[in-house]
Automatic annotation (TrEMBL), chains A, B:
SUPFAM superfamilies: Tryptophan synthase beta subunit-like PLP-dependent enzymes. Belongs to the serine/threonine dehydratase family. Residues 26-319 form the Tryptophan synthase beta chain-like PALP domain. PANTHER family: SERINE / THREONINE RACEMASE FAMILY MEMBER, SERINE RACEMASE. One of its GO terms (molecular function) is threonine racemase activity. It comes from the Eukaryota. This is Serine racemase.
């Protein structure tokens, strides 16, 4: 499952040393987020649950960890030319924020059909928004042009060693806060977060189980694990807008080797988990952020091999960026 | 404002010793809640803000502290007969939950026009709901009957020494977590929370400023402070359903002497503060819980005598129990 095979470990994009380095590097810039628990949710799940609440991270999601590690790893000369990414989500906002902390420009390429609230979010964090057509071709064309003009460093949202190491600091903190954890459930999309978490956690304690939580409408990871190779879906359909990416060349080997199982859940289960997060935990999560709770409460988990031996379960509430206008309108 | 005047201190319903006792007594039953901060909100307020997040307290509000202190102070004989209160809000749920922890009955008298979600909340926490007509007369009649039949101890939501001492533990924790705090803003209704906080904080550091945050549609405390006596309003009108009570005989002297100022805010300011809590802090608060943030962002505060010398401000996010059905309906 993991373990003493050094050759293999060294083949991964990150390891416990690079994750510990990341922790030292990013410590001044991020929040050590609290771990929450609830007896009601323990009762409901029949397990002890520990919610690592990355919603409270700067920028509202764990993405700030990887972004800071990537940006503060650059030498001064490279950094001065700025950073670049194409994403309209939490990675874009985090990269903009981390760049601001280092005092360098962040160029964020966003398709011109992206929701205005996402564009505003990137701008609010100091990012320079550069619009492109909503096609892969236009995106790459624009990215190429910006790189040529500025010399900015492209920071991929997940298929990047520094990003993976940065996200792995979630597990270092969690296992420091709750050493008795035997299972960690992590939302999966491109696999940056779960790769970092798996590499850190299994290095600390190889018997820790790592489970991925994935929407059934975007279950490319479950399919990839079953097929033994990266599967890309023609179409995805899920409320969890943060979980629509596909695995990358650096994340796939970790997911293949170190993720013990994938639990797929329906969108209705995600919304119900969100409700429990807001109404019981009092944490404002986005759909992608609530999927770990959905997984632990699912029939899929109860009938899985992991059920019996999972007692103290860490759940990463990965982010909380969500448009709640409907709520404010109803209150006004 | 407070201080070395022992006679006066002894006249209050609680003191630093009773609050420290409460802390020891309730520690096994409550959460030590995290303190959150946000650079965005610091920038917006031009202050350093520290959010003591009692939304994450068991039962979803600070009320669990007082309820546990009251219930675990009872000797076994008295406790065995159970406890009683008339409230449909957070105190009722907390009392039910604390009673369950001690294994004793909790009788909760609720007017038959109370929202069903509040009734369910009390039941979920193990309380025995006893309906009454929605009049003061019926409530007291029913309470008298239940006390006669059961011998249960009436635990008032705020006008009770043990409740005040229990709520004061919020300040002990907060000042331990963030010793540099110079000002604490506390929502005010019956005054139990702010009395405990003021007595604890001023005993630890007499120069700490205590500000009450009150809805302008239920500004009986501002009026009482101005008049020098308890004023009761004929009518209250605010979205903050937890802030509609009036001061009691035990809380008024503390509020009169130790609360430095009252900041009244409009309901629109409360909703805007809620929005910031959800969207920036990612904490699900109820209107009463968000009023401290509304106060710190208000023009009233910016033009108040406290503005200049308040730098590190503790804000108690008092609770997070709110019906969010409109949100779930929109997502489904």
């Amino acid at each position: 499952m993991d373990g003493g095979n050094d050759t293999r470990e060294q083949a991964y994009a990150a390891d416990i040393a690079s994750i510990r380095q990341a922790q030292l590097r990013i410590e001044p810039y991020i929040h050590r987020t609290p771990v929450l628990s609830s007896e009601n949710l323990n009762k409901l799940s029949k397990k002890k649950l520990f919610f690592k609440s990355e919603c409270f991270q700067k920028g509202g999601a764990f993405k700030m960890r990887g972004a800071c590690n990537a940006i503060f790893s650059l030498d001064d000369d490279r950094a001065a030319r700025g950073v670049l990414t194409h994403s309209s989500g939490n990675h874009a906002a985090a990269l903009a924020l981390a760049a601001k902390l280092r005092g360098i420009p962040a160029y964020i390429i966003i398709p011109n059909n992206a929701p205005q609230c996402k564009v505003e979010n990137v701008k609010r964090h100091g990012g320079q928004v550069i619009p492109c057509e909503p096609t892969m071709q236009s995106r790459e064309l624009v990215a190429g042009r910006v790189q040529e003009e500025t010399g900015a460093v492209l920071v991929h949202p997940y298929n990047d060693r520094h990003i993976i190491s940065g996200q792995g600091t979630v597990a270092l903190e969690l296992l420091d806060q709750v050493p008795e954890i035997d299972t960690i459930i992590v939302p999966i999309s491109g696999g940056g977060l779960i790769s970092g978490v798996a590499l850190a956690a299994k290095a600390i304690n190889p018997s820790i189980r790592i489970l991925a939580a994935e929407p059934s409408g975007a279950d490319d990871v479950a399919q990839s694990k079953a097929a033994g190779e990266i599967i890309t879906l023609a179409e995805v359909n899920t409320i969890a807008d943060g979980l629509r990416s596909t695995l990358g060349s650096l994340t796939w080997p970790v997911v293949r080797d170190l993720v013990d199982d994938v639990i797929t859940v329906e969108d209705e289960e995600i919304v119900e988990a969100m409700r429990l997060c807001y109404e019981i935990l009092k944490v404002a999560v986005e759909p992608s952020g609530a999927i770990g709770l959905a997984a632990v409460l699912s029939d899929k988990f109860r009938t899985s091999p992991a059920w019996e031996s999972s007692h103290n379960i860490g759940i990463v509430l990965s982010g909380g960026n969500l448009d709640l206008s409907v709520l404010w309108e109803s209150l006004r």
